[in-house]
Amino acid sequence: MAIVKPFRGIRPPKELVEEVESRPYDVLDSEEARAEAGDNEKSLYHIIKPEIDFPAGTSEYDPQVYERAAENFRKFMKNGWLVQDDKELYYVYAQTMNGKTQYGLVVGAYVEDYMSGIIKKHELTRSDKEEDRMKHVRVNDANIEPVFFAYPDDAVIDALVARYAASEPEYDFIAPIDGFRHRLWIVSEDADIQTITEQFAKMPHMYIADGHHRSAAAALVGAEKAAQNPEHRGDEEYNYFMAVCFPASQLTVLDYNRVVKDLNGMSATEFIEALRKNFCVELKGKDEYRPAELHEFSLYLEGQWYSLKAKEGTYDDNDPIGVLDVSISSRLILDELLGIKDLRRDKRIDFVGGLRGLGELKRRVDSGEMKMALALYPVSMKQIMDIADSGNIMPPKATWFEPKLRSGLVIHKLS
Description:
The chain has 13 helices and 21 strands. The protein is of the alpha+beta class. It has 2 domains: 4-251 and 403-413, no CATH class; 256-377, Conserved hypothetical protein from pyrococcus furiosus pfu- 392566-001, domain 2. 44% of the residues are buried.
């Protein structure tokens, strides 16, 4: 069963939150972070993207960059830009996108639950990316940014969260980049804190939605600290890492689309004909066309949109991985026709999150940068949870969650 605990969060004073908060470290590059931070010395980018404090071109993996992160974290605390709460608390975090709101709880997730599989994952992680985040956690002795979990819906928690959501929030702002609304409430009543802990203890599993590398890094550093402590008891703060947990039914999974540089030596006509072996192909014209159901894809090629419907027999409904549209498109289009076998490393392919819309696919093809684009029907949260429950791993670049968590609203210290 899932173990969570409240913690003494480190947060910006209410009047400073919009100066401190930022996008997550992994959704923008160094120059974008430098531009967004501008001359704002209170921006969290100075902690999560500290290479912006060095000359342009400085590697984000330079040892002095990690040290600067810790130096800036200490500076934020000293200057009162970040302040630690006096009491162990939970926090309610709401995000509103396009009129839809999802309500999460900021908790301390248990390292051993990650190690034992109670916290389930659906993606593979890369050791180099894990090590980068581990260095960041080690040097700051803190989880500066949260990970993003889903949990099975719970009526008791829903009612508790709704009660807080009806009150005045501690933070309430519109993020400047995407226009989404973010609110945070503090759960300070002892009875409510106990209820949250007890309700999570009834859940057999939680699921990583977004942030697999941060989850792995946070858990591995926690285990590392336990192994290094000869007086380890098991209740130390490093046994927990910060997560924002949302009811699975509230989450929005967007399409994660593909753009490809060439047709592997084929002409457009030859490529369309080759597709007919496994797909029912229908020309849709110049207007943007979005897939309407599972196993349908939208192709944009030479100024035209096409519907591609996978034929019966090209996939197995009883195979939890093979039935996914990301698997079907990878196997029957990217691999079989275009010779793209490694989605993570092949330079001929790139990926576009669904929030950017079909217009971004069209733009990248019309510009000549890419030859064709493929839009997919989004996977469901149920598919993700079923795959995690079965012990399987999603194919690469399969899920895109929006809205992204804002960083800097709460930080978790490991000691």
